[in-house]
Amino acid sequence: MQIEINLLPQKEKKRTPIWLFFLAAALCTLAAGFLFFCIYMKQNELELLEQRLAQTVELRTTLEGSAEQNEAASSVEHLNQAANWARQEQLPVTPILDHFIERLPDRGFFQSFSYLSDESLTLLVQFDTSREAAYYLAELHESQWVSSARLRTVETSLEEAEAKTQEAVEAKNALPRYLAEYEIIMDRSSVESALKESERP
């Protein structure tokens, strides 16, 4: 058995310098601090965005509510105006219709009669010829009850394809009819005075 004797001094093991531990700890602390700072900033930004969103939603709700109130108020005002207009003393329809019928040519027929306002109205009248439509417009202009009158449209009652050929008219054994639309503005004072005179015995 051999015994080994080492008379050389033993080498000391290299130790990691302590300052490396401090440096590593400082770097970890800085990294953790930076990470917490970033998280904190993101949370603040998120809270700020949530506050802005809540304010925007609240503002939108307020604006929609005020718009609905304005619309409701406008609707009520419109209905009140319509009711006031209906309550106003309107010109009687029967004498006005009689007045316009008296001026129709023999082959003129009312299709529709509608008020646009208390003094203006539209008439849709059927005639056999377009000349009768022009004649009726001249009669309206001569009436003292009419402040102004204009012929808006004149259309034939036959379809365009049929109206183009005389054969189609003869095949149907019918003449084209003309529909004339008039817009009339009444002279209210003349109508009222004429009606008062007619009521006197």
Could you give the order of the helices and strands?
HHEEHEHHEH
Label the structural class.
Answer: alpha+beta
> Biggest β-sheet, characterized?
4 strands, antiparallel
Q: What would you say the CATH architecture of the largest domain is?
A: 2-Layer Sandwich
Question: Which parts are unreliable, with pLDDT below 50 for 5 consecutive residues or more?
Answer: none
Give the strand order of the largest sheet, numbering strands 1, 2, ... along the chain: 1-2-4-3
Transmembrane segments: 18-40
Protein name: Fimbrial assembly protein
Organism: Domibacillus iocasae
Keywords: Membrane, Transmembrane, Transmembrane helix
Describe the structure.
This protein is an alpha+beta fold. The chain folds into 2 domains: 21-88; 93-199, Gyrase A, domain 2 (2-Layer Sandwich), CATH 3.30.1360. It is built from 6 helices and 4 strands. The chain has a 4-stranded antiparallel sheet with strand order 1-2-4-3. The radius of gyration is 48 Å and the shape is rod-shaped. The termini are far apart. The model has no long low-confidence stretch (mean pLDDT 82). Keywords: Membrane, Transmembrane, Transmembrane helix. It comes from Domibacillus iocasae. This is Fimbrial assembly protein. The chain crosses the membrane at residues 18-40.
Summarize the structure.
The chain has 201 residues and is α+β, with helices and mostly antiparallel strands.
Tags for this model:
201 residues, alpha+beta, Gyrase A, domain 2, 2 domains, four-stranded antiparallel β-sheet, 6 helices, 4 strands, rod-shaped
